[in-house]
Amino acid sequence: MNKQKAYNHIAKATIKALKEQADLGKVNELTTEAVYLAIDKAFNKEYAVMFERLDQYKTALEFVAKGQDLEKEQLIKLAQQSLSQSNS
């Protein structure tokens, strides 16, 4: 997931929390807390995706670093697969 998509997901969660509180007519300290919780939840969700991708990259790099007998084409394919996962 790229940075822009992550920020968009977090912004949408924030807007949703604000709208829900406004619809209930509860614009007060609880609104602030609800928004903070929505932002925190969205950040945690985005970080989970990033950490999962980081683990995938680490696994691919460890595979190469262990000196596996890979052809140049296999190394390129492994790198391309890792990169394509980061764009989804």
Features:
0% strand, 88 residues, mainly alpha
List the helices and strands and how they pair.
Elements: H1 3-23, H2 29-65, H3 72-86
What is the structure about, briefly put?
The protein is mainly alpha-helical. The chain has helices at 3-23, 29-65, 72-86. It has one domain (3-86).
Structure write-up:
This protein has about 90 residues and is mostly helical. It contains three helices and no strands. The relative contact order is 0.12. The mean pLDDT is about 80.
Order of helices and strands: HHH
Coarse shape: rod-shaped
- Low-confidence parts: none
**Rg calc:** 20 Å
Number of strands: 0
| Amount of helix | over 70%
Tally the helices: 3
- Provide the number of structural domains: 1
- Give the N-to-C terminal Cα separation: 6 Å
> Strand-residue fraction?
under 5%
Largest sheet: none
